[in-house]
TrEMBL record:
Residues 10-30 have a biased composition (Low complexity). Residues 50-151 form the LOB domain. Residues 31-43 have a biased composition (Pro residues). The keyword Coiled coil applies. This is Lateral organ boundaries, LOB. Residues 130-157 form a coiled coil. It comes from Dillenia turbinata. It holds the Pfam family LOB. PROSITE patterns: LOB. It comes from the Eukaryota.
Length: 204
């Protein structure tokens, strides 16, 4: 068949049949699309280890197993400065190596305290502080003993007073008899004399 020039041929569409099994259910529009694959976690940021305060002050490299690192962190440089000024770094390291690890923290605290006391009092150091505290303890003990003695004395006085009051209350009350006063009797006697003299007859 021939077509005339200028005419357009209509497009031909071929529909393919879609087979639907009886067990398959049509997809609902409310179903969410499949999740995208998870992206791998970012790599951890590198940890920058700063040298401890002891190695920073001594200007040396801080190794992994530094003896001073757990007790002199980089945020507390003054702590090592005070201890190093009195004892020295070599003595501190030697002392920490000679004692068990569970006692090193207490030893460092003791050294720092003693170094502070030695700087405040170069002659006596922490011994001077101990003597001063012992003196205060003795004074407080003397004041406490004095207060206790006064309290016992007051308790004894209170007990005696209570016993005296009970004794007075237990005794029977006697009637009080008022005796005439001798001065009043003399006055009445004088009045009697005056009365007799006044009434004596004048013609006798």
């Amino acid at each position: 068949m021939e077509y005339a020039e200028g005419t357009k041929t209509p497009p031909i569409t071929i529909s393919t049949p879609i087979s639907i099994s009886p067990h398959s259910s049509p997809s609902s529009p409310s179903q969410s699309p499949p999740n995208p694959p998870l992206s791998p976690p970012p790599p951890p940021s590198p940890v920058i280890l700063s040298p401890c305060a002891a190695c920073k002050i001594l200007r040396r490299r801080c190794v992994d197993k530094c003896v001073l690192a757990p007790y002199f962190p980089p945020t507390e440089p003054l702590k090592f400065t005070i201890a190093h000024r009195v004892f020295g770094a070599s003595n501190i390291i030697k002392f920490l190596q000679d004692i068990p690890e569970n006692q090193r923290a207490d030893a460092v605290s003791s050294m720092v305290y003693e170094a502070n006391a030695r700087i405040r009092d170069p002659v006596y150091g922490c011994v001077g502080a101990i003597c001063q505290l012992q003196k205060q303890v003795n004074e407080l003990q003397a004041q406490l003993a004095k207060a206790q003695a006064e309290m016992v004395n007051m308790q004894c006085q209170q007990a005696n007073l209570v016993a005296l009051i009970c004794m007075e209350m237990s005794q029977p009350q006697r009637p009080i008899i008022q005796e005439p006063n001798s001065d009043n009797l003399g006055y009445f006697a004088e009045d009697g004399n005056l009365g007799t003299t006044a009434w004596e007859p004048l013609w006798t």
